């Protein structure tokens, strides 16, 4: 039930969220790991992360279904704008550093075995592990790192990469095994932003005759990365199988011990959610992450569940909730008045939906950083006010008061009361009811379309049916339309929509991704993450201290100040979140006893689960971990 984003952003945000979180703890000598605040959790010489099983067997095949809304793929290159990349393709690429899933902001060497941050923080230098190899057997060299960076910043890659790396001036080959990144300005996040750049060989796309396929035209040419898996076979853009590279160079690294336990990982892409669910019940794949509460209760049932062949379990996570909601396209004049946007928020009856449709499984979102210490609450702190006061003339005065909370219909409140408030706001904005509709001074009716991806199935339809019914009581005519992925992606890229459901993925340490989502500069960049078209000098000003925060306290103040301004802008009708991952899986799968803290469900399954050995295949699966674990 999440909104659709650019597909490459979905695939790489998990890696980039780690990258954007990291910075340097000491501007001095070489390090095996660095942390933005304090010291890394794991000391020199650590053998593995706490949330893996270092003795997990390395065998078996994991079969999964669509990890997102894609129903087919037409390329292996996830870094370009056009086309749909194959699921799981990120397993082929690695970066200089990698994060751990039980720390907010630490990074450990992966391709790099040594990290040096300049005393003036204007550059970072990485030394490459001499064992690091690409899938073709070539050693990973500094020139490959520079080639990857230069390519990703070029017009041949998706434009978001140039935005992410805007403050990295250049990559410099110091010697064959050493690369340096120079920065526009000192910043604690930039060393690890550079360290998280995905690295691929300069030979990817090189033909036998020496000619080269342009990077933006790479489709089914085999990627040459350094990751633990290689493509074994694929079929018609609907099925792909990866096989663990028997010569994988990094298997013994502490950051890799206990991970990548399956010999093969296969993805099968189904045409719609109903077919996907029925295929799981029939045993066609091994694990399913359920995002629809009603399905979890009513549809994810049957004989195989009753017999214990399939297990349903909710796993606690500590990810920030991010933001999910109905985004209004501010490029449309209809939504430019904040009073109109607030009125649309008042018409959304979350309590009714949670009771009737969601079985009480969700909590209403009141923040862009909900369920974290970055969320603004109560009155602004002194640190927040120091950032907000210089912008007072540009801000809603309410920003300086108590933090806004979403309207409720729980007693003594009611939907009727909320709709009366909405009607008054609309009247102030020049919208009055006459001739059978809500109209402006020119007589134009208030009407808009809510665009959704048909790939999510019918789960959102009852939500918007109820919402549209509430809007109709105000005289607003809203329509609900679903289109297939290819069409909706084109419309998103060109900002051709009125309103749509969007989910901004959670981040533990906000950084450059917030600029891509909310800055004025990104609003006119086709394909950008700023789908709402937000242009605000005040928000631009708040993004700077957030990106350049030097302490955790500064980051919290900047995040909370930004949160207040965004929430009082009513750019989104917030929906809901859950602090658990709902996973159904076959009883022959196993997972480590210690859960990570910050993780995606699909990534956790692929990276750290394993198949029980044949001798244990008939045994009952491990005991369930409570959701509050």
From TrEMBL:
Annotated GO molecular function terms are:
peptide transmembrane transporter activity
Matching SUPFAM superfamilies: Periplasmic binding protein-like II
Where does the secretion signal sit in this chain?
A: 1-30
Question: Solute-binding protein family domain spans which residues?
Answer: 109-519
**Keywords assigned:** Signal
GO biological process annotation, one example = microcin transport
Q: Could you state one GO cellular component term attached to this entry?
A: outer membrane-bounded periplasmic space
Residue ranges of the TM segments:
none
Q: What is this protein called?
A: ABC transporter substrate-binding protein
What is the source species? Trinickia fusca
């Amino acid at each position: 039930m999440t909104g659709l984003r650019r597909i490459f952003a979905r695939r790489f945000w998990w890696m980039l969220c780690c990258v954007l979180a990291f910075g340097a703890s000491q501007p001095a000598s070489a390090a095996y790991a660095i942390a933005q605040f304090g010291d890394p959790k794991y000391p020199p010489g650590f053998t593995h992360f706490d949330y893996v099983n270092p003795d997990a067997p390395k065998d078996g095949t994991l079969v999964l279904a669509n990890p997102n809304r894609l129903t087919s793929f037409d390329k292996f290159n996830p870094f370009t704008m056009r086309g749909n990349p194959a699921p799981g393709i990120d397993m082929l690429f690695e970066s200089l550093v990698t994060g751990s899933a039980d720390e907010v902001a630490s990074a450990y060497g992966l391709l790099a075995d040594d990290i040096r941050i300049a005393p003036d923080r204007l550059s970072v230098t990485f030394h490459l592990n001499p064992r690091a190899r690409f899938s073709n057997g070539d050693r990973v060299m500094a020139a490959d790192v520079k080639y990857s960076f230069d390519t990703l910043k070029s017009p041949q890659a998706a434009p978001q990469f140039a935005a992410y790396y805007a403050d990295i001036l250049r990559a410099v080959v110091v010697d064959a095994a050493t690369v340096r990144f120079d920065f526009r300005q000192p910043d604690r996040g930039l060393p690890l932003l550079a360290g998280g750049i995905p690295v691929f060989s300069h030979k990817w796309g090189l033909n036998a005759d020496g000619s080269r396929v342009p990077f933006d035209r790479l489709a089914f040419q085999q990627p040459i990365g350094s990751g633990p898996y290689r493509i074994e076979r694929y079929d018609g853009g609907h099925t792909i199988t990866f096989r663990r590279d028997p010569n994988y160079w990094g298997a013994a690294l502490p950051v890799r011990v206990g991970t990548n336990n399956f010999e093969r990982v296969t993805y099968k892409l189904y045409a719609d959610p109903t077919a996907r669910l029925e295929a799981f019940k029939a045993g066609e794949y091994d694990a399913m992450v359920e995002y629809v509460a009603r399905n979890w209760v009513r549809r994810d049932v049957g004989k195989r569940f009753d017999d214990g062949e399939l297990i349903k379990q909710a796993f606690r996570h500590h990810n920030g909730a991010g933001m999910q909601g109905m985004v209004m396209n501010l490029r449309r004049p209809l939504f430019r008045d904040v009073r109109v946007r607030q009125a649309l928020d008042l018409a959304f009856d979350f309590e009714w939906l949670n009771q009737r449709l969601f079985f009480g499984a969700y909590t209403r979102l009141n923040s862009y950083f909900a369920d974290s210490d970055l969320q603004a609450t109560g009155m602004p702190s002194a640190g927040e006010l120091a950032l907000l006061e210089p912008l007072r003339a540009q801000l809603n005065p309410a920003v300086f008061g108590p933090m806004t909370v979403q309207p409720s219909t729980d007693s003594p409140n009611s939907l009727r009361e909320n709709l009366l408030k909405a009607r008054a706001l609309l009247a102030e904005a020049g919208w009055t009811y006459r001739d059978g509709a809500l109209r402006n001074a020119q007589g134009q009716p208030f009407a808009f379309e809510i665009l959704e991806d048909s790939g999510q199935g019918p789960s959102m339809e009852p939500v918007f049916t109820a919402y549209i019914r509430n809007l109709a009581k105000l005289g607003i005519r809203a329509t609900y339309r679903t289109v297939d992925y290819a069409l909706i992606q084109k419309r998103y890229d060109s900002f051709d929509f009125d309103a749509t459901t969007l989910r901004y993925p959670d981040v533990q340490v906000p950084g450059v991704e917030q600029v891509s989502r909310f800055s004025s500069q990104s609003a006119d960049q086709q394909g950008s993450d700023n789908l709402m078209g937000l242009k605000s000098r005040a928000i631009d000003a708040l993004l700077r201290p957030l990106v350049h925060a030097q302490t955790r306290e500064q980051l919290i103040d900047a995040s909370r100040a930004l949160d207040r301004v965004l929430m009082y802008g009513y750019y989104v009708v917030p929906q809901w979140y859950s602090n658990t991952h709902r996973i159904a899986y076959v009883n022959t799968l196993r997972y480590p006893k210690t859960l990570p803290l910050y993780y995606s469900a699909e990534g956790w399954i692929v990276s750290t689960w394993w198949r029980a050995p044949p001798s244990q295949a008939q045994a009952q699966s491990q005991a369930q971990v409570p959701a509050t674990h």
